[in-house]
Amino acid sequence: MAHVTVNKEYFSEGEDSALEEEENEEMERKKIRENLSTLSFEELLKLKEKVGSKVYNATIYGTEQPKKSNIQLIVKRGNKNKPREISSKMRPKQISAILSKDTSSISKIKKNAPRDPRFDPSIGEFDKRKFKENYKFVTEMRQNEKTELQKEFSESSDPERRKTIKLLIQRLENQTREEEKTNKARQKEQLEKQEIRERIKRGEKPVYKKKSVKRIESLVEKYEELKKTNRLEKHIQKRAKKLKVKDRKVMGKIKQ
């Protein structure tokens, strides 16, 4: 080991004595190393077991060997889109707690369990009527969007853009029509329930309509509505075309 020459003029008496002690210790350590160099590896191991690793390291190296840091190194990613590489030697907290049978540490680990509000009892049951009332503003937004699209359609000269706007307007109209249809069906159901309650109050026998009767009534209502809006002929043609395609598919399967 290389010795550093120190000018003793710059140190006090206490510092001189400390330096002398260090030099003496280093000399003694050097002599011990020279003596130990003649021993075999097996004899060195026996000596380390006898005196202990701390004393052995302090004698040979001058200080104790540094302990391995428990801090996990953060591995940087080469690309932000790539996953971070983690060593397989790093044991997760929960597994190490289970292996060590330490239940107290398991309870401290946070469990981030996924929670679906549709099936969570703490959220409550879904109320369709309340949901519709809370989201009434969506219908108004749809009407405003339709007005803006109609204005853009009249001002636009690009045929492709006009075609896109026409499809968007048609989609909004279909959504509005379906919503109106759902609202009418709900109002009709509420009226039927109210009529049954009134009959029971009057002491009369309530009348419950069968599904087949309800289906015929809805078809009649649809026919009357189509007739009023002059869309009955178009609807019949569309229905006939649909049935024709269905029959063709059935005939094709029979021929096979």
Give a topology summary.
Blueprint: H1 13-36, H2 41-51, H3 53-61, H4 93-99, H5 103-108, H6 128-134, H7 137-155, H8 159-202, H9 211-228, H10 232-255
Helix pairs in contact: 2-3, 7-8
Distance between the termini: 96 Å
**What oligomeric arrangement do these chains adopt?**
single chain
Largest sheet: none
Low-confidence stretches: 1-15
Shape: elongated
Strand content: under 5%
- The secondary structure category is mainly alpha
Helical residue percent? 55-70%
Topology, number of strands: 0
Radius of gyration, whole Å: 44 Å
Tally of helical segments: 10
Overall mean pLDDT: 76
SSE series: HHHHHHHHHH
Task: Give a verbal description of the structure.
The chain is an all-alpha fold and 256 residues long. The chain is built from ten helices and no strands.
Brief synopsis:
By secondary structure, this protein is mainly α.
Main traits of this protein?
256 residues, mainly alpha, 10 helices, 66% helix, elongated, disordered N terminus
